[in-house]
Amino acid sequence: MRDAYVGRYTSAHMLYGVVVAVGLTALAVTVGTRVFRTAGA
Question: How would residue 41 be classed by pLDDT, with cut points 50, 70 and 90?
């Protein structure tokens, strides 16, 4: 968070945060899709 506050968007911490956020988003979409399909909708 400190890196974003001071404008360092290419630091290792920021890139790690983006990777984690994208991973969690992909996981949530995958789980949501599976639940939706198995619910028979």
Answer: low
